[in-house]
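Re: weekly structure request thread

Next one in the queue (331 aa):
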Amino acid sequence: MDNNIDIRALNERIQQESAFVDMLNMEMNKVIIGQKTMVERLLIGLLANGHILLEGVPGLAKTLAIKSLANTVQAKFSRIQFTPDLLPADLLGTLIYSQKKEEFQVKKGPVFANFILADEINRAPAKVQSALLEAMQERQVTIGDHTYLLEEPFLVLATENPIEQEGTYPLPEAQIDRFMLKVIISYPTKEEEKSILLQHLDKNYPITSTVLKPEDIIRARSVVKEVYVDEKITNYITDIVFATRYPADYKLQKFVGMIGYGASPRASINMALAAQAYAFIKRRGYVIPEDIRAICHDVLRHRIGLTYEAEAENITSGDIINEILNSVEVP
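Done, posted below.
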């Protein structure tokens, strides 16, 4: 990275370019009460071009949040309810024979949109999950002999319910690794719950207004890429990721035998990209260690495999990440 970067000029530019973040937040806050972290993470996914997995009990506004975000950006939104009988064609589309034209015609599926809400993704079998994952990774879909590129921006938000374990198919490691962030959503506070209740009792339920076009997001993404990441920060990211693979090297002997597998190189890439987007949202032209610490849990929690030993001792990936952040030296 170029060391002759003018940080002050870059900072001013980022402050101007990120002005729309406040508008987006204002629109989202009309509809979503509390859940600040979820809204922030949705923006990170949007700006860093990464997909997000949301985990939380039903009724915590996961669907409402992505719908509202799609409204604020003049973008096409699709909601797909994953069920055990869903087929890949229900997602991607299929070839239909037209008797009038005497030929097969492509009927595109709901995946051809800018924002995809994959509701309860762990309720569908592996065949359907992998069909969505080709779209997520390659940004294209193959129907018959033809390959179709998906429109940009393309953001998949998948939700999964932790409670109802019956009838769910856990996501394989390789698939779950494709999500930039895994966000755990908790219940609102008592005050927030009261506000939610009053909002629903009000005659005029608020809706979000459109403040951006898809091309604004694409332009913002190229600016996010310019956010300066110092070599000290890249070393910090590498140390955190390596601590998940070789805990003994980072004075974390107690986790040897607890970690089945550590985070993949995708974790390092996603941590850097998410930190750039986070700095952009905070209207800063450079990444600081606090940005890494803020997004670290969401980037890593689904990428650390725990052994039975860890589960027997009730050690979670969150505990491991906390210890890593406490033991890896902050630049």
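The chain has a mean pLDDT of 87. The chain has 14 helices and eleven strands.
Next request, please.
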